[in-house]
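User: structure tokens for this one?
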Amino acid sequence: MAASPTPPDDGQVATPTTPRVASPPDERGDSTLTVVIAFAANLAVALAKSAAAALTGSASMVAEAVHSWADTGNEVFLLVADRSSRRKADAVHPLGYGREAYVWSMFAAIGLFAVGAGVSVTHGIQELAHPEPATDFGVAYAVLALSFVLEGLSFLRSIRQARGEARVAERDVLEHVVATSDPTLRAVVAEDAAALVGLVVAFVGVLAHQLTGSPVPDAIGSIVVGLVLGVVAVILIQRNRVFLVGAGVDERTRRAVLAGLLGLPDVARVTYLRLEYVGPRSLYLVASVDLVGDAVEHVVARRLDALERKVAETPRLAGVVLTLSTPEEPSLTV
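Assistant:
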């Protein structure tokens, strides 16, 4: 943790009920661009698939069109999530509005489950009960190929962002996508991956329909697409739930923060440390520290206040509360 210059002492002493609030720098421009690219790709794909579904009558193409429209709507939710969570802290929300990102991302995941998965599975079952032959298979193949290119570009963009962040966090890319506190990145990667899988399934279903003359494989393809979307939606809902109820940090992050606190000149030891995500890449820190020396009470109060201000200037900390350790408390070690 980098120590920022200590600001002038204004005589105010931070208490455990008055968190020192920082304004973390805006580091989410990459996520916004990733979502915008995904939105543009999904909108173009949704229009193309809808036209192909109307022309061909293919159950798989109908499922894919529904899938893309659901993804397009979800990107709107993700853009709202990104914008809403950037609002600055105020008296009502002293730690900011970061958790709004998880609320809106939850809406997007529920929409993916209800619309994308539900409609695709339902349509596939109806097609099995009342099969209808498809036509114009060439149109379906052309649209699937175009969709694969557009979805692939969006997926590569999201993976490029995830790879860069994973390198900094010393994680595998898949591990980072699952663990990241940024729900928009996780949602775009998951939805694009599901879209690519769905396109392959739809291609197999349409091809089998053409070769056999039976609409059954096409209908099964629609059901499989819906099941894939359902699995992705459940995973996204679960991850957003974890962060909404208050997710802690992994051990590597905790050790890094503890080492940063212990590296501050005024800190002799740390006896308590709690870190919790309050938004994408935004943490709330509560710690008990033992200051160097044995000064009188009013001097200690001012030193603790100055130390808290310094720590609050650290990027990615939305709020900081420091209290004094008691002599009998055991020390934490890195």
